[in-house]
């Protein structure tokens, strides 16, 4: 892989994150709502709120607060959470594994199920199974995540009693080893499934349309004329080319996936970053919010970089310069 | 692929219960409290989560009368300007150290009077100092007689924390806030990153060992998911049940509901509509009274509160028995009276349209009666009904739904509102939760202060006298006078005294309504 390309893309991350910090900081401060009121609770007197504001440095001007914050972030200190009373970085890092587990599982589900389904549908366009698969995909694509979530809980968890409805582990359990892994997997099943639905629907539709397009091309006709089996035609000649734009879309939708994770984590009580994001937004916990913005934007930028690299590796026509 | 394995390895809810132990109670909480130090905040989430770990000097029984807890008895001296508490000598902190009067003095001086907004605001202003003359005596000395002290010493208003853990540290950042040491019926075990806080029974608890072995607090942010988790057998206890779900749970034999007006975030709450008296529309008391007459409060009770609670018929909650005044001339639903008052105030109506001003002071003739109504997301349904009822008398209400942080700022800091709805929790004494709503010194950029911006020197002095009068008869008389003036001036409309619904599985019973809800609970099967 071309080293200077990677380096150049990595350097682009710096202004991107700086921009996100700046815009995020200003947006939070321009938005109505005062963190002190959320932090200190009701019933205080004006003197008390002034005292608390001073303690947290919120009585200083916005440019000054920004300068302090940027200086700290540059030295790797993401500040102190108003609500949790401890370091923002440890607070966020604790939540990263849960969100990573949820989003990666959902993505794998979407890819492993979505692409084959798309391919099956594309083999005989407008046949019964294509209409079935495309119809379901369209339905899933147009349904909001929170509704799918509630419905799945009602049917799979409550009516059938098959899977737990909330959390990442059984409450109060002291399981270890394999039993613990199985417990987490059972809790993971519903939220990952729900988070996967929309991505899955996108991948089905995209794979199907690209593959139909690809199957009508000259090189496919040539391959068939040479006597290649339908299986070889599909797997060797058509699918790899049809998947190129699919890879781009998977990368481009990383942001969607994380946004979906916020809703899914709240509905399923999944202890990840998304739940922390919503809670911090409601309490105007600025250091935590900004820390999350940085982590999420880094994740999205990295996924995009990774997509470019994978793309180049798969498609010899793309030469990275 | 994985699914069959997961389902096979899963098993039923009964298995889950066996896994976590029969005598473990799992309670749902709405958010991660962040820390477990209730002495440095009035945030309800922290108090719900941490109450079981601590004690107050006193506790309040179901009739809100003070009962001994860390203090076994007390004397009131110097006409109510000095309170002397005699502490139990058999109390130990969860780490084995002895509890003494020095802990009480330290907690008040370094935490409660600095960081607990309510205690700081109410007690701090009147208190001269707290002394600990010996290990088992604490003396509170006031500038002038102070009546409500005994109502303000329970674990919600004044939890006691250990001096030996906090001395010399910044209480807001002490690591013990997340690994707390208390004296309460349960001791801290873990604060998991998986959204779970675990407590174990304090076998040395001075009021007797709890029947439960453990309590697990589970963070479930969505109220709907909380109810489903209860139905699925994953949790045993909910601190609150959304209105639409209550009837379903009540009919289900697997669950029991408990109703209470006591809450760690504030007790005895009245949902109240406030008029911004700085706005020209509401300067005229006839307009305020007209709106009060136009509202059918019974409908608010039935449609918005799902019939739970009661119509508010006085400015002070009927739960504060000595202060509540019965039989006040609070406007009852009467659109004819409302119409007469509006006409008399210069608001005329043609047909069934919106009223317009004719000779109303400080308002241009022809101005339509269009006002805004600010509400929190959970209370915007009050706005829908209010809008419908006021439409009937020719007033057009525009609803603004604002999230908590924005609501507090818009209504109390910027005073940018016409009318707004708020739940005013009266607490256990009018000094705690009613005074702030009426006295002029409480017109301040502070949430749930004097929303109306109501000023009345007579009212101010009556509150001062009621706060320092010690005899209940005297206080009763003064609070009645206060409520008569409030009804006459109508800076607010008092809609509904709300009630909270908790829910639990039938396998557990014996719950209390206070912060120590699980101290007396038992779970079987």
Please outline what is shown here:
The complex is a heterodimer of chains A (about 325) and B (about 525). Chain A is about 75% helix and about 0% strand. Chain A has 13 helices and no strands.
Structural notes for this entry:
The complex is a heterodimer of chains A (321) and B (525). By secondary structure, chain A is mainly alpha-helical. Helices cover 77% and strands 0% of the residues of chain A. Chain A has helices at residues 3-30, 35-40, 46-55, 62-74, 88-123, 128-142, 145-159, 177-215, 218-225, 230-252, 254-268, 273-282, 286-314. Chain A is globular and about 85 Å long. Chain A starts with a helix and ends in a 7-residue tail after the last helix. Chain B is built from 17 helices and 23 strands. Chain B has helices spanning 2-10, 13-20, 44-50, 101-115, 117-126, 163-166, 223-231, 243-251, 285-294, 297-304, 335-344, 380-391, 404-413, 430-433, 435-438, 457-468, 472-489, and strands at 24-29, 58-60, 66-68, 71-77, 82-87, 127-134, 137-142, 186-191, 196-201, 214-219, 237-238, 255-260, 269-275, 310-311, 347-348, 356-357, 370-375, 396-401, 419-425, 492-497, 500-505, 508-509, 522-523.
